Amino acid sequence: MISNFILAPILAHMLTAIVLMFFWKNVQAQKTISVIGNCIAFLVSLRLFALVWENGNMTMQMGGWQAPFGITFVSDTLSATMVVLTAIVSLAVGVYSTAATNISRIRYGHFFIFHFLIMGLMGAFLTGDIFNLYVWFEVVIISSFVLLTLGGKKRQMEGAVKYVTMNMLASSIFLTAIGILYGITGSLNIADLPEHVAAVENRGLVTVTALLFFVGFGIKSAVFPMYFWLPSSYHTPPSAIGAVFGGLLTKMGVYSMLRIFTVVFEPDDFILGVFIVIAILTMISGALGVINKRNMRRIFSYFIVCHIGYLIAGIGIYTELALVGVVFYLIHDVIVKSNLFMMSGIIQKIRMTQDVYRLGGFYKDYPRLSLVFAVILFSLAGIPPLSGFWPKIMLFQEAFKQESYVLLATLIFASFITLFIVARIWSEVFWKDLPKPNAEEIDHFATFHKRGKIALVLPVVGLAMVSLFIGLKASFVFEITERIAYELKNPSIYIESVMHHLK
Amino acid sequence: MELLLVALVGILYSAGIYLILRRSMVKLLLGFMMLGNGANILIFLMGELTKGRAPIIDGDSIHFTDVYADPVPQALILTAIVISFGLTAFAIILLKKVHATTGTDDLDSLNVQDLDI
Amino acid sequence: MKKNSRIRKRRLDTTILRTATNYLLPLLLLFSLFVLLRGHYLSGGGFVGGLIASIAFVLHSFAYSTRRTLRLFQVSPLLLIPIGLTLSFVSGFLPVILGSPFLTGIWFADSVAVIGSVGTALFFDIGVYLVVIGVVLTILFTISENV
């Protein structure tokens, strides 16, 4: 089925960004336009998902130039799911930042850049051309650079240097990989590539190229040797930005790996071995990093690193059930990680600190809010029946079935550390009494007017509801993820939907 | 010609990576520029060099009778140049700002954000 | 020391450069338009044209001052970005309304005297041209203000 509708989520955000530029100085108008734009994009994304769910893959050839010569946009179930997740997070964070973002930041174009970032993400999920993927990556990272450095505090700047350096390096490696891939195959269309890749005689060159892609995507998704930029930078910007970064940016790398290593390269045992080793090291280093941290957002940053390990491990196992686990975990992770950063933002607003030792008494002061936060934290830890539980079980099961016991042990170790830290956060921040109750400390949250409070709390509650839904209606999510895993294991469906006009 | 470009790509990549590994911010920036240019020439090289031919085929020709230059690498490089232009502009401003706020250009001394709290 | 730096700052705005700029600015702008319009089949296009036009303004800011260059624009160059983006967006979206894929080129049957065939691709390029001028001037003026 060929349709322009596939571009609708991208164009909705693009249009919002353009309109926002005309209202550069009008803060109130920017907030309104951003929320409206996000709502439209959300509805459009749901519609796209529904269309793909009913009619199968959708494709669209830019400018009418047929694949493999033109730029193709493809939406299979995985793309559509990622687009819906992006739209959910973007809507939540958009509403949240109308209250959480200060006015000078908005004057410098916070919302405008934010919509460009989301547009880039949508584009990366929907494109069917590997160079176009690179371009969308660049749109995303340039926007993220600006969002990260807006405000210009000292530690923000220093974190940004690491972030910018590593991301630029990753882009260079990605570009090099694309160049070599084009050299050996003469094509850039993801659906056209597998045929050419299979025909290359020098298999060593193919493996090297595949690993170059893995390094490029790996740096972007913060896997083992190159993860340090993430915990040095993600806690420095305001929490609304942290929420988008933590939820979506690293997942873009994982999505690209899923796409490239199922359709373009058929990974052999060597590459899968690399995946597993890297996954184990990522989980261990993330888990060890998280133990001695006091700053809540830094804890969450290390959690991101640690849990990327699960996803890479699932790709490394590479059975259909493992891929079900990966995609399920991806869905759960996007929602929960974004929510964690927004939650830490609310706590920051109330207590003016992120230090878990100086926090406390939250349950006593805000019992209802604490209940919502509990849902988020315990979904993260994977306590049944919340959303993190199901995919972890699948990954454990598959690791056991494949007899990779080291991996299984690491998975359990990482889960255990996660549970331990979550329990510690719960007892430090929520249960324990406030260390030195300080009358002069201003509760910024209480001074907010009612609309501001709603704008802060509503997105967090909404995403917590989504987490609950994923956990309690797991059968529905399983239906989606099973279909995605089936499509990933049978790339001919994807290829067929793009190249059908040549048959 | 190909051999010359191959050597050039190698030099640009190695010089770029060497400069990135230095501690100075300016050298970091120069390293990225070199790496970007190296990648561009690599793509150019990968599209097979065709001398003195335009990337255009006659509208009414059905078979490729004539040698023509591959237009794809040129389009890719153009896009990559535009992107690296934007990235470099951003990086210059960022590093200038970092230098202004911290007063140093030593990359190893930028560790405030890694202190817990 | 202070006097010294002032001399160094004034080194560029000589009479020769100013007089030359007065003639070069319109010439370069005209050339940028020429490059923009020939861009569809020959080398050129919105991006290069925009760069040439912004170089003209940069030259002007060297000869005079950034403030005087900004006065040449009635509005901030920042506003050129959304205008250009809108133009490109509309020219890309027009084929969608007519039932073709996004960004398909639609051409008028008759060609215009000097310009040649006119189609959506031209308007897309003009949008790019405006965006490039806006972006480059914003970046350069931001950098030069901070120096």
Automatic annotation (TrEMBL), chain A:
A molecular-function term among this protein's GO annotations: NADH dehydrogenase (ubiquinone) activity
Domain of life according to the entry: Bacteria
Positions in coiled-coil regions: none
Cellular-component GO terms for this entry: plasma membrane
Major localization class: membrane
Entry keyword Cell membrane: yes
Membrane topology: Multi-pass membrane protein
Localization of this protein: Cell membrane; Membrane
Gene Ontology annotations of biological process type: ATP synthesis coupled electron transport
Transmembrane residue ranges: 6-23, 35-53, 73-96, 108-127, 133-151, 163-184, 204-228, 240-258, 270-292, 299-318, 368-386, 406-426, 454-472
Keywords, in A-Z order: Cell membrane, Membrane, Transmembrane, Transmembrane helix
Domain NADH:quinone oxidoreductase/Mrp antiporter transmembrane: 129-418
Family to which this protein belongs: Belongs to the CPA3 antiporters (TC 2.A.63) subunit D family.
Protein name according to UniProt: Na+/H+ antiporter subunit D
Automatic annotation (TrEMBL), chain B:
GO cellular component: plasma membrane
Cell compartment(s), UniProt: Cell membrane
Top-rank lineage group of the source organism: Bacteria
Alphabetical keyword list: Cell membrane, Membrane, Transmembrane, Transmembrane helix
Entry-linked InterPro entries: CPA3_antiporter_subunitC (IPR050601), NUOK/Mnh_C1-like (IPR039428)
Chief localization: membrane
Membrane-spanning parts: 6-21, 28-46, 75-95
Membrane topology type: Multi-pass membrane protein
Family (UniProt): Belongs to the CPA3 antiporters (TC 2.A.63) subunit C family.
Name of the featured protein: Na+/H+ antiporter subunit C
Organism taxonomic ancestry: Bacteria, Pseudomonadati, Bacteroidota, Flavobacteriia, Flavobacteriales
From TrEMBL, chain C:
Transmembrane regions: 21-41, 47-66, 78-109, 121-143
The keyword Transmembrane helix is assigned to this record: yes
Record key words, sorted: Cell membrane, Membrane, Transmembrane, Transmembrane helix
Compartments (UniProt record): Cell membrane
GO CC, one annotated term: plasma membrane
Keyword Cell membrane applies: yes
Na+/H+ antiporter MnhB subunit-related protein domain residues: 16-138
Matching Pfam families: MnhB
Membrane topology: Multi-pass membrane protein
Primary residence: membrane
Superkingdom in the source lineage: Bacteria
Annotated signal sequence range: none
Family, per entry: Belongs to the CPA3 antiporters (TC 2.A.63) subunit B family.
Entries under PANTHER family matching the protein: NA(+)/H(+) ANTIPORTER SUBUNIT B, NA(+)_H(+) ANTIPORTER SUBUNIT B
Protein name listed in UniProt: Na+/H+ antiporter subunit B
